[in-house]
Amino acid sequence: MSQRIGYYPGCSGSGTSVEYDASTRAVCDRLGLSLQDVPDWSCCGSTPAHTVDHVLSAALSARNLELAAQAGLDTVTTPCPSCLANLRVAGHKMEKEGFRKQVKNLLDTECESLAEVKSTLQVLLEDVGPEAVQAKVVRPLSKLRVVCYYGCIMNRPPEVMQFDDPEHPMAMDTLMEACGAEVLPFPLKVECCGAAAGMPRKDIVTELSGRLLDVAAGMGADAIVTACPLCQMNLDLRQGQVNSARGSKHAIPVFYFTQLMGLAMGLSASEMGIAKLAVNPKPCLEQAGVL
Amino acid sequence: MKTISLQKPDSQFIREVRERSGQEPSHCYQCGNCTAGCPYNFAYDIPVSRIMRLLQLGRREEVLQSKSLWLCATCQSCTTRCPNQIDVARVMDVLRHMAREAGYATERNVKAFGDAFLESVEKHGRVYEVGILASYVLKTGRFWTDVELAPAMLPKGKLGLRPHTIQGAEHIARIFRRYRGEPESAEKNGGEKK
Predict the structure, then answer these.
(1) What is the least distance, in Å, from the CA of A287 to any CA of chain B?
(2) Each residue's pLDDT tens digit, A216-252
(3) Contacts of A273 (CB under 8 A, 6+ apart)
(4) Which of residues 238-267 of A touch B (CB under 8 A)?
(5) Which ipTM did the prediction report?
(6) Could you tell me the domains of chain B?
(7) Which residue of A has its CA nearest to B160?
(8) In angstroms, how far is CA B141 from the centroid of its own chain?
(9) What pTM, to 2 d.p., does this model score?
(10) A101, A113, B6, B20: least CB-packed within 10 angstroms?
(11) Which domains does chain A have, with CATH numbers?
């Protein structure tokens, strides 16, 4: 008795965030959600496309929304907030006939039916629900103190995203509590990590991600929980760069929320891609008794 | 302190931004909420609220040459918090489009990164991260970009060493060609020409 839903993995899911993709698929499977990949999906264009042109960006996204609809998938879920934002913004803007026509001129199709898009976070919170998650927990994360960091675009702008609170989101907090974790308050839940500035302007990422790490450490967190491949990469892989730039000595593991959900539900560390993380998460997980 | 002449606003510039963004610049009453919440303000040459003011004054050149346009990450803080419901991030995005069209790229490396990213999408239909890095390095000559991250990434299998090209890659390339207004190739196409 499983619920079928379209799945848009996003490009980083087969590169820098393979562990997010793997843990998302495994956790959804465990919770009875059957994910079906959008056939021959293509890149949404991410930030670079919309900074060049809005019609180009929407055309790159619309191709996927149309492929999904043609495959009989009226709802598509994606774990990545950047994909989510592009796909949703495209659908939102194409409600206007003039804009839709411009997009159609770049595509070969009519764009008559487009799938709706929701984040995997939203699907797990609303369609599955914290009670169903809790019912599957076999290894509660009760010794783990975490802060949940949502990043800037999971919930914003609110008119487009239509999910959770744009300033103080609680979806991940709720799911982590359902897994037994102690969730600490985190005032920088939606502050930007530096996004894609890592390559061209590393100084910006080390400053902004540095602030997040400082505050997470100051709150007494054992780990940071994220829902975005770019946030996760900036905080985890670039944590060493942050430390060198700012003279800090952080060694805070940065998980995807799906990895911790999976561990709590009894999935193995290798299935959750725990070894893929840059900052060694083993001491933290051993101390919490889930490894 | 720098003074700004209030004479001769470039009204064509204001009109163009209004039309392309669907936002009304004159609705900004300079409360500064956008700047107060802007995470990038420390790196900007002109704060976002002042960009809005210069836009109201039709100061085309100062606005389009600002580094801030290229550093904005579209994090949506300004848009979410504007008391007058101006989609400020969208205005910044449109200004960036116009700066690009005018040949300004005051943060050259940011533009190089975006270009490298889209070239990868056009070529493969999906992003190939190693290819982006290589292309970015060639464009900028910054050979040591993130080289210290390789030891952490390579053994973990996080860098795909070969691109994944989708079946519909030609479809994606066609979207880019049409966007640039290039003539359709001789092959059959079912879509209408622009």
Answers:
(1) 24
(2) 999 999 999 999 999 999 999 999 999 999 999 999 9
(3) A18, A19, A20, A22, A23, A259
(4) 238, 240-241
(5) 0.94
(6) 11-101 (1.10.1060.10), 108-179 (no CATH)
(7) A15
(8) 21
(9) 0.94
(10) B6
(11) 3-120 (1.20.1050.140), 138-287 (3.40.50.11810)
